[in-house]
Design a protein that fits this description.
Helices cover 20% and strands 44% of the residues. It has one domain. The termini are far apart. It is an alpha+beta fold and 187 residues long.
Length: 187
């Protein structure tokens, strides 16, 4: 009963708040890539990505999905040679008051009692496997892009989807690597 009441109150707060919502432009920060065990890996985090509305939804008990899509391109071509993605989810247990974060690349769930720690872990990519070194050919140059997008949240009480990307000015966060060659990765 407490959980149902909490969801109804949160839904009303979210609905009222979305009328006067603020927007942010998220960006990738502290980004790096390197070879690890013959695999190109990427690490980074998103900053400037939370608004009060997003934080309220995160604390409502709704599952929030953040999808990181990565694309490998040959230099000079906008058509990707390879596309893949990883999804992070966060869900607050309103009864027991903890956050669970799942990452498709990880084999374990992460539990947080502190909201700020959960928020920081949710937007963090650590050693994301982009591609095995065998994919890259000698004498060619490549770059990769990583984009981050929030999925909509369906609120049952309102029978409505909330488009979380509107809080991000409807633009995903994007990182584009400098051009590199197989030789650059192996150096």
């Amino acid at each position: 009963m407490l959980e149902a009441l909490s969801k109804q109150i949160t839904t009303l707060v979210i609905a009222a708040g979305s009328l006067f919502s603020s927007h942010v432009t998220p960006i990738f920060d502290n980004c790096s890539y390197r070879l690890q065990d013959d695999v190109l890996v990427f690490s980074g985090r998103i900053v400037n990505c939370y608004t009060k509305d997003i934080e309220q939804i995160m604390q409502s008990g709704q599952q929030i999905l953040l999808e990181f899509t990565y694309r490998i391109h040959e230099q000079g071509s906008e058509i990707p040679l390879h596309v893949n993605s990883e999804t992070h989810s966060i869900k607050y247990d309103v009864v027991d008051r903890f956050f669970t974060i799942d990452k498709t690349e990880e084999r374990e769930n992460f539990i947080f009692l502190d909201f700020n720690e959960a928020k920081q872990h949710f937007i963090l990519l650590e050693n994301l496997n982009i591609q095995h070194i065998d994919f890259f050919e000698e004498g060619r140059e490549y770059f990769f892009e990583v984009t981050a997008s929030l999925h909509p949240v369906y609120l049952e009480e309102m029978e409505k989807n909330i488009e979380l990307m509107k809080y991000w000015n409807n633009k995903p966060a994007t990182y584009r690597s400098p051009a590199f060659s197989l030789h650059d990765l192996e150096s």
